[in-house]
Amino acid sequence: MTNPGQPAYGDSMETEPETMTAKWIAIDWGTTNRRAYAMTADGRVVDTFRDDRGILSVPPGGFPAALATLRERLGALPALAAGTVGAAQGWQNIPYVAAPASLADLAAALVPIEGEPIAIVPGVSFMADGRCDVMRGEEVQALGAVAAGLVPGDAVLCQPGTHNKWVELEQGRIARFTTAMTGEMFALLKSHSLLRDMLKGEAADDAAFREGVADAGDGRDLLSALFGVRASVLLGKRAAADGASYASGLLIGADIAARRAPSQPVHILADARLTALYQSAIALLGGQSHAIDSHAAFTAGMAQIRELAR
Amino acid sequence: MTNPGQPAYGDSMETEPETMTAKWIAIDWGTTNRRAYAMTADGRVVDTFRDDRGILSVPPGGFPAALATLRERLGALPALAAGTVGAAQGWQNIPYVAAPASLADLAAALVPIEGEPIAIVPGVSFMADGRCDVMRGEEVQALGAVAAGLVPGDAVLCQPGTHNKWVELEQGRIARFTTAMTGEMFALLKSHSLLRDMLKGEAADDAAFREGVADAGDGRDLLSALFGVRASVLLGKRAAADGASYASGLLIGADIAARRAPSQPVHILADARLTALYQSAIALLGGQSHAIDSHAAFTAGMAQIRELAR
């Protein structure tokens, strides 16, 4: 991972011994994984690591110990966490902040865990237009991207993953957002569906992927288009090895086509592989996109929340 | 089950001892279940039963024994089977007949299993409009519904189940069809997704179901609308007990909205529960529907195929 505030190998740390001392820990604590950053007082990253101690792996009552292992590694520092650690299945159920929401709104609603050196950032809820939505963790990335100067205060963000968050920022606040279960749907189909024999490969930005994006962009409905993966392989019209790319293209294409007008550039915060797939699909559907460093956005957001909460 | 050709309790069978003698067995042999009918020479049902010896439960080389148990029960008669028993994972992979397809086309392409008292009806394939589709078993129901006089020769049929088949009949032939994995998608979400805690109830034709149908009919995309089930429960806007009905409404509504113009009446061949849900959803979306006895359609189709193949 790269981060503007993180020292590269060879950087001289002796020239600024004070400023590069870690003072706190920022944690992106999700459902299956967590990533922790040892942070300087002014928001630079000194050290980081990722492990699989997501909330689903923590036994009841096990969160203090799970935090302790992290502090043994990064230092006995106060911690600030965001993500599903604040959900009902996490350490403590932290109430959502309703959109529109700013970093100041999140900072004002931080919840310290009693007797533990950690506070948890609330998630954001949305209720309007006859629908409901929720996020936990992505709000820090989205607002942090603005704080870090990586995206403008009025922008459309796309945060692909298990649940893709499409965020509309207005004046540096989360005005509206929509969650699409694109990643989870692909995982369900790949692991458990009658299509699974045709989805064994890894999805890549290849000809089959682009065909799937185009079919979804033409308005083909998912329920029938997905079955078409099976039919086309059975009839010898598609190699089974291309099934994963085509199905991924269908899902990502449907996700993009449902969400945005091509006139708005999309700022994508994701890992390199998903960013490449979404950038390719957005371009195919006539749009523009920018790849944003999601780690830099997260740590900038957490640093700002910490400042605002002091 | 009810069937026009089947004697009700109290019918006097002594008055027609010859005509009510079973001469052959019709089998609807699917992936998880099979249903067999002891049939008279003129296509009436003398006896029937259903068990869970679908093809997935039959071990390699086990089909002769699986047929034998069925003949022990219904008589040592010649059998005619349709369904996934003719798929690659079934008894023998029987080539598809390409649409447009009639009962005569199916009869001409019957495949007897060597050394066994059974022949298997081929499935139907469709390739046009840049897409592929396949069916195995539903073709007998669809064409049999016409043979039995239950639907006109030009009609739209809907066969909900794990994979819903929408069939366009023209002049008594299967002209085109589209498969939607509506039922499988619901099962995947209910068993394996992060929504599963909200999908524990049984879907019913209630207010939540109708709300889901309406939301899908308004064009709300499935990837985000399905996540909305979770968000609305977390935010206290929907009872978790209503999640299954709402999600079922979304899926069935999306399936119907993608497939048909409200001007065409839809003939539904399914069990009573699914028929009721599809009829309600079609009415909500401005269409008309008729419930068709799928067992009567199947046995009429098989009887006609047997006649045509003699």
The coarse overall form of chain A would be globular
Tally of alpha and pi helices of chain A:
9
Biggest interface between protein chains, with counts per chain?
A-B, 46 and 45 residues
Structural class of chain A: alpha/beta
What is the element string of chain A, with H for helices and E for strands? EEEHEEHEEEEHEEEHHHHEHEH
- Which spans of chain A have pLDDT < 50 for at least 5 consecutive residues? 1-15
Q: Helicity level of chain A, as a percent range?
A: 25-40%
Plain-language structure description:
The structure is a homodimer of 310-residue chains. With 310 residues, the first copy, chain A, is α/β, with parallel strands linked by helices. Helices cover 35% and strands 22% of the residues of chain A. Chain A contains 9 helices and 14 strands. The longest helix of chain A has 17 residues, at 243-259. Chain A is globular, with a radius of gyration of 21 Å. Residues 1-15 of chain A have low confidence and may be disordered. The interface between A and B is large, with 46 and 45 residues.
